[in-house]
Design a protein that fits this description.
The complex is a heterotrimer of chains A (312), B (373) and C (289). By secondary structure, chain A is an all-alpha fold. Chain A has 11 helices and 2 strands. The two termini of chain B are 35 Å apart. The chains are: A mainly alpha (312), B alpha/beta (373), C mainly alpha (289).
Chain lengths: 312, 373, 289
């Protein structure tokens, strides 16, 4: 290999710039763990399980925030995954090529609408709709059923875990569609032709040949959606209610997610422990993001090589 | 934009004049300028060539309405851009402690601990008075009368429905629905929450032990809204809700405001006069950190509060120190004229005298920045 | 299927299979319709609610105090342009360098480290990036809120997007092209700058613009770094306004007039992003997306 002066400058420059990337990650991790250290040492694992968040008495437990994050994310995945996988199958297997291109593009645009615009829409369109119509309807129908009725208990307010979950579902939809589409498209044509060749209908072909092959990748897509939902901030903050008061069975209670807790409380967390506890939530988000993203990418890569969904 | 160009010219002129006027200003501290060659910077009238043209501040949302008005008027009068971002009193206290802003706004005075933790000495300058009012949105109910017991009961979650016997007893002739009460509170740290919880802690031992007073507290029930505006917005859009906001926000939104029984047992409507009364007969500590909630005055609105600008006792950058002192002076004098229209009570005369002394005590490198009268 | 075929007469099985096929086709179409419908619904709202706010003053004036009519989001438009541009200046060279490093220079272990780091940063919640930049710059190095802190926060978010998209594009450049140039005796840096990058130019540009569009809409990190500004400002060391911040403030307010302005500002933001996306789709070569 040649190593002239130009090459050395080039290699040095590129390497220097490129190394900023891992250094930034290291910097983020170190700085945040350091800032969170007082809280980590004071509360230990109890930080995750206690749901008392009391800045006056300086007792901090992120349990309620963790709960809110898990519930809203679960709602988002339950609502978005079937729609996304359905749309992905349609785009790859059913739609004519040109139509599929246009539709996929439109769904991609959904991914580039800023979070704050979703929040605005959620606040002025979804919240009133859910308070006036959807939630009373759910309460008078599903709310009457045993066991799951508890999910729809209590006063309806519109700003609650349910609406937080719904807005998240819409926001992770494009990511799920894009990644699922890619994994499904990566299923070898031979698989499909084999099925069709023995006289299978289109759906039988999808069910028998495509889905089993793409299953791992689709799970990966969902995990990536989970990661996105975990960290989503502004839109959820506007609609989720921002109350850390209680963990109850109902989806109609106002809640808090980890990310929205940071957004709401970070600037004014003036006490040392208070500030440290807020940063510890950010550290938790960081850890979750690292773990979940790694899993998702491994799953997707097994099916489709490098995923395109990274940018979203 | 035109104003900015003007500022540029002034800044150029300033560089020539700077040395001379600096001496004049500092010297003015001991020897007042003779009439005729008046100090262009004090009293505050128009532009002052040697002051900083840009100031950054953040803090309380409670006085945001009047502060943004001041910012606009002050810019017209002096060309100085004061960028006040309403992020909450807690945020203001944190910003001044960390020295990430030039000055801050807060409704809650800083605690002793916060003052010790701050990177440098901080002064409290009261600017206007305001009231925190319970605001409600109950279809069919136009008048609501509360007592310390019912208000604390609602915020403790002990009173859950609008037709609770206690509420019914206090409001003869009002037909309440049997619906649940949606309690709304501030989700971000705020002086409004401080005034509100400070009051409830004074009147309810139960509230004091379970929740306590602070800029951000752990309410046992309810929905959070961000900022005065967020709470007002939530109450407005949520039937059967109750919240607490600054008087002006309730007025702007034509929300129902409740009357409240004060410390003397009188039922009082939230009016500016009642707010001013809360400051009558109060003894003020030297540092002006004072809570006037639950005032003993029979005509006082019980949840009244001062709002403060927080500033450093000494600002090393003289141009900034001068700009800040001038702005504070203007706000506590000319700025008071805007108070009533915007729903705030102006400073009482005795407090204004103390505020003036505070502004005069701001120094730069140990030298007072404003000439004494 | 084979068990079905044995259990029932052939014609019935065929009908059941055909019905199932049709039902599924309808369901899948419906799923697509929901996804696309949501987009049209949200865009429709933004356009219908935002249009009444738009007039010349809305683009050029600064926000008015509470209760005063008129005023605009001029400083926020200027701020978003400045902060995004500076973020781009920081992030695009780093992102492209990272991609070159990974594909051309050190495809081995070091390349994996850089790529993995980029992927993890891409997975970080944007609020966490804001917290980082606040501790590092606002409280630390710079000591106050500033446009540059906002730009750096956005740059951190952009870098992985640029890096990963560029990497994909560089991988599409045929290896034979590189080998041919090297065989002719061209030094490596010349090969990269004269052969690889020009071949992938359109794709690299796409990567940069996509990242910019994404950064322009970020709110959470700016909240903790750029703070916002009531006045026009172009000074990188001072707080600066931004459209997403302005939307957030207006949205959380109780004033109908400000809600309209929030929709108006959203319309401007979404329009810019949509135009960029469409332009990319029209001009980008296949494979770059």
């Amino acid at each position: 290999m040649r190593s002239g002066r130009g090459d050395r400058i080039f290699a040095g420059g590129v390497t220097g710039l490129a190394l900023i990337v891992p250094l930034t990650l290291a910097g983020i991790t170190l700085l945040m763990v350091e800032a969170a250290w007082p809280s980590i040492t004071t509360y230990g694992l109890g930080f995750l399980t206690s749901s008392t968040w009391d800045p006056v008495k300086e007792i901090f437990g992120a349990g309620a925030y963790l709960y809110g994050t898990l519930v809203t994310t679960a709602i988002a995945v339950v609502l978005a995954a079937p729609v996304a996988v359905g749309a992905a199958i349609f785009l790859v297997e059913y739609a004519p090529k040109r139509v599929a291109g246009t539709l996929s593009f439109l769904i991609e645009v959904l991914a580039y609408i800023p979070s704050i615009v979703y929040g605005l829409w959620g606040l002025f369109v979804l919240v009133p709709l859910f308070r006036e119509n959807v939630e009373p309807f759910l309460q008078s129908t599903l709310g009457r059923l045993p066991v799951i009725g508890g999910l729809f208990d209590g006063p309806v307010g519109g700003r609650d875990l349910l609406v937080g979950g719904v807005i998240l579902a819409i926001m992770i939809l494009p990511l799920l569609v894009a990644v699922s589409r890619e994994v499904i498209a990566a299923v070898p044509i031979a698989q499909r032709e084999g099925m069709l060749g023995i006289g299978a209908t289109k759906w039988e072909m999808v069910r028998g040949a495509v889905l089993p092959y793409a299953r791992t990748g689709i799970v990966g897509a969902v995990v990536l959606g989970v990661a996105r939902a975990f960290g989503e901030t502004m839109a959820v903050t506007l609609v989720v209610g921002n109350s850390s008061t209680s963990i109850t069975s109902s989806l109609f209670v106002p809640g808090y997610t980890m990310a929205s807790a940071i957004a709401n409380q970070f600037v004014e967390a003036s006490g040392r422990l208070y500030f440290s506890a807020i940063v510890e939530i950010a550290v938790l988000l960081l850890i979750v993001a690292l773990v979940v993203n790694t899993i998702a990418r491994l799953l997707i890569r097994r099916v489709a090589g490098t995923p395109q969904g990274f940018a979203i | 934009m035109l104003g900015e160009e003007k500022n540029m010219k002034f800044r150029l002129a300033a560089s020539a004049l700077a040395v001379a006027t600096l001496i004049a200003a500092c010297g003015g501290a001991s020897t007042p300028s003779p009439s005729g060659s008046a100090n262009p910077c004090f009293p505050v009238k128009g532009q002052c060539p040697e002051e900083a043209q840009l100031l950054t501040a953040s803090g309380a949302t409670f006085p945001a309405v009047i502060y943004t008005k001041w910012v606009d008027e002050y810019y017209k009068a002096t060309g100085v851009q004061v960028n006040y971002q309403a992020i909450g009193s807690g945020g203001g206290i944190k910003a001044i402690s960390e020295k990430t802003v030039d000055f801050a706004g807060s409704d809650a005075p800083m605690t002793d601990q916060q003052l010790t933790d701050a990177k440098s000495a901080v002064l409290h300058i009261p600017t206007v008075m305001g009231a925190v009012v319970p605001t409600f949105n109950v279809p069919g109910v136009t008048k609501l009368s509360l007592t310390p017991e019912t208000l604390s009961g609602i915020y403790l979650g002990a009173i859950k429905t609008w037709n609770d016997p206690k509420l019914v007893a206090d409001n003869p002739g009002v037909s309440f629905p049997s619906t649940n009460i949606t309690v709304v509170f501030r989700s971000d740290g705020s002086g409004t929450t401080f005034a509100f919880t400070d009051y409830l802690s004074k009147v309810s031992p139960d509230f004091k032990s379970k929740v306590g007073a602070g800029t951000a507290v752990n309410f046992p029930t309810g929905v959070g809204g961000k900022g005065n505006d967020g709470v007002a917005g939530t109450v407005k859009s949520t039937p059967n809700s109750i919240g607490y906001v600054e008087l002006i926000y309730a007025m702007q939104q034509k929300l129902g405001t409740a009357s409240l029984r004060n410390a003397s047992g009188k039922v009082v409507e939230p009016t500016l006069a009642a707010v001013s009364n809360a400051a009558v007969g109060v003894t003020y500590p030297d540092d002006l950190r004072v809570s006037i909630t639950n005032s003993a005055n029979p005509a006082a609105w019980p949840i009244s509060t001062f709002t403060f600008l927080l500033t450093y006792r000494d600002v090393s950058d003289h141009a900034k120190a001068l700009a800040m002192a001038r702005y504070f002076w203007w706000g506590t004098h000319d700025g008071q004229n805007f108070a009533k229209d915007l729903g705030y009570a102006p400073l009482p005369a005795d407090v204004l005298t103390k505020a003036e002394a505070k502004i005069h005590s701001i120094t730069s490198g140990g030298t007072p920045v404003l000439p004494t009268k | 299927m084979s068990t079905l075929a044995l259990a029932a007469p052939a014609w019935r099985v065929r009908r059941r299979r055909r019905v199932a096929d049709t039902v599924m086709a309808v369901l899948l179409t419906a799923a697509t319709a929901i996804a696309v419908g949501l987009l049209l619904l949200i865009l429709g709202y933004v356009i219908v609610k935002g249009l009444p706010a738009l007039n010349l003053a809305f683009f050029t004036e600064r926000p008015k105090p509470f209760g005063v009519d008129g005023g605009g989001v001029g400083p926020a438009i200027v701020g978003t342009l400045i902060v995004s541009a500076v973020a781009g200046l920081i992030a695009i060279p780093i992102g492209i360098a990272a991609a070159i490093f990974v594909t051309e220079l050190r495809p081995g272990r070091w390349g994996t480290v850089v790529r993995f780091a980029a992927e993890l940063i891409a997975g970080l919640p944007s609020i966490a990036v804001g917290v980082f930049v606040w501790s590092f710059l606002v409280r630390g190095l710079i000591g106050h809120y500033s446009a540059i802190a906002g730009a750096i926060a956005l740059a951190v978010i952009m870098i992985p997007i640029v890096a990963r998209t560029t990497e994909e594009v560089l991988r599409l450049v045929p290896g034979s092209l590189r080998e041919a140039a090297l065989a002719l005796g061209a030094p490596r840096w010349r090969v990269v700058f004269r052969v690889v990058l020009p071949t992938a130019r359109a794709g690299v540009a796409t990567a940069a613009v996509l990242a910019l569009a994404r950064a322009a809409g970020e709110t959470a990190p700016l909240l903790l770094t750029a703070l916002g500004n009531l006045f026009f400002s172009t000074d990188l060391l001072r707080p600066i306004a931004a459209l997403p911040l302005q939307i957030y403030q207006y949205a959380a307010s109780p004033y109908d007039d400000w809600h309209t302005k929030a929709w108006g500002a959203s319309l401007i933001l979404v329009a810019v992003i949509a135009v960029v996306s469409f332009a990319l789709r029209a001009f980008a070569p296949r494979g770059a997306r």
